Amino acid sequence: MEFRPLPIGVDDFENMITKGYYYVDKTWLIKELLDKKGEVNLFTRPRRFGKTLNMSMLRYFFEKPMDGKSRKYLFDGLKIMDAGEKYTKEQEQYPVISLTLKSAKQPTWELAYTLLKREICAEFDRHKYILDDERKSNRMERYQRIMLAQGDLDDYVDALKYLSQCLCEYHQKKVIILIDEYDVPLENAYYTGFYDEMIGFIRSLFESALKTNPYLECAVITGCLRISKESIFSGLNNLDVISILNENYAEHFGFVEEEVRAMLAFYGRENKMDTMREWYDGYRFGTTEVYNPWSVINYVKNLAVNENAFPTPAWSNTSSNSIVKDLIYHASGEVKEEIEGLVNGRTIEKKIHEDITYGDIHESEDNLWNFLLFTGYLKAMSIRQEGVNRYVTMGIPNLEVQSIYENQIINWFRDEIKVQDLSVMYAAMMEGKPDIFEKEIGRQLKKTISYMDNHESFYHGFLLGILANIDEFRVKSNREAGNGRLDICVRNDDLEMTPAILELKVAKKFKELDEEAESALLQITEKGYDAPLEEDGFTEVIHYGISFFRKQVRVRMEREELE
Asked: 561: which residues sit within 8 A by CB, 6+ positions away?
């Protein structure tokens, strides 16, 4: 069998083909674009679903090469070459402007603007052959100024329209514009404090290039979300928004099942299809079931080396989580309960709209569900129309995303607890006031979300989280003591400050809370958990037996004199 490396992080189509990577053929996207003839097409898909590679593929197909080297061979044997002359005659016929905005994810407006300028300068430099056109020599002064990064803001706000004019006049052919990751600078600017400056620049850049541009053949734009209210696309009557709710183009971003099955077969791992489905399937674009391509490729790469490789949540470290984290931090108790329900396998139905607005993020909690759906954290299981509104039933798509909820998102709740003033709780614990201690634990427990409530490990981690910032005390967990391992010990090196031992239990029923708390308290004594503290010279210790049933807690306490 011919070996082909798997393309981890390869997003340049020419490299993909010439270096022999395994390629899942998505060239039918070209046919559909030509058939539908959309002038400005906005594709919104989650991160790492093949948008950048598809944009590179479009550029190599449509762009007229100016170095004298045709790249038509890159498409040999691919689907688009069987589509007929109607489509293949469009190959290498257009000037193409290709721009990515992901480099503008920077901490300041000045740096972000500098990086955007560099992207624009590089694209002007890529087309500098037009400087040889003596017919337009009187217009080339501005071109060189932009290309050499010597222009001012006025030169760059409509630079794409100007470049398309220059290219159209040179080639006598209208221009195709490709803009990848258009929403990255907007999201970043919102969270780093220069949103107004960024939105003004992007709006001007887009309006001039896409709205009032007589030199435009068509444009393709990609991102995670549609940002509309700030008027980036205001008045664009020619805009076709293709979100994950649309039937059109559904199979071109991400892998469909037959593509995943073929990849596993190529590497001799067909028996891993069920695992692949459980972990990385579950997304739905329109009515098409889609696998996460980034995660599939990473897993197959591991399987190719070791057929017993375990699946891992590869996608969790690639997505931009700022929006989701911020919205969850500000979520109400009701929303947190709904998230907890999702984590525990339930579904929710919410009104969904595709117009996302950063400026209004916190005006409605509906925004959270929009962000979770369109960024891939939830799956659209069914859609119903009620008047002008669409209601989507959503659930967690697969085990990979489930693991993100169980780890990352729940940890965000714990991080939120850590920054709160927990001095009342701390004082109650160390002063031996179980009623207040119980009340404060319960209050914090209702603020978090949990999964697998019958697992002591969840509550153990929860208590460690809220004890993380207790000043002047050390928190020890799962330490050997006496005849076993205690759950939590809170102590100071000062022998006059009474330490506390916390033993945890999970009740199977609400009515068993008191019994389990007493059982935990008894275990401390029976197992001799005090022994290390007595050896260190402490003369007193506070015992806490703590039991949990879902969001309910019981605390029982006794003081123990040490000899």
From this structure: 539, 540
Residues 274, 312: Cα–Cα separation, whole Å: 15
Question: Who contacts 290 (Cβ-Cβ below 8 Å, separation ≥6)?
Answer: 49, 250, 251, 253, 254, 255, 256, 281, 283, 284
CA–CA gap between residue 448 and residue 331 (Å, rounded): 11
**Model pLDDT for residues 432-458, shown as the tens digit of each residue:** 999 999 999 998 887 776 655 557 888
Q: Are 546 and 505 in contact (CB under 8 A)?
A: yes
Q: In Å, how far are 502, 530, 532 from 535, measured between CA atoms?
A: 19, 9, 5
Backbone angles phi, psi at 348, to 5 degrees: -135, 155
Tokens of 51: 């948008």
pLDDT, tens only, 321-371: 666 677 677 777 788 788 888 888 899 999 988 776 666 666 777 778 888
User: Which token pair is 465?
Assistant: 């989280």
The total of other beta-carbon atoms located within 10 Å of residue 465's CB is 19
Q: Express each pLDDT in 531-556 by its tens digit.
A: 999 999 999 999 999 999 988 999 99
Give Cα 357 distance to the centre of its chain.
Answer: 17
Closest C-alpha among 259, 281, 372, 287 to residue 323: 372
- Quick check: 499 and 492 in contact, CB under 8 A? yes
Question: Hey, what domains does the chain have and what are their CATH numbers?
Answer: 13-250 (3.40.50), 254-317 (no CATH), 322-404 (no CATH), 420-561 (3.40.1350)
The structure tokens listed for 53 are 């590679």
Enter the pTM of the model.
0.82
Q: With contact defined as beta carbons under 8 Å apart, do 422 and 469 qualify? A: yes
CB 170 within 8 A of CB 131: no
Residues ≥6 apart with Cβ < 8 Å to 307? 269, 272
d(CA 125, CA 483): 74
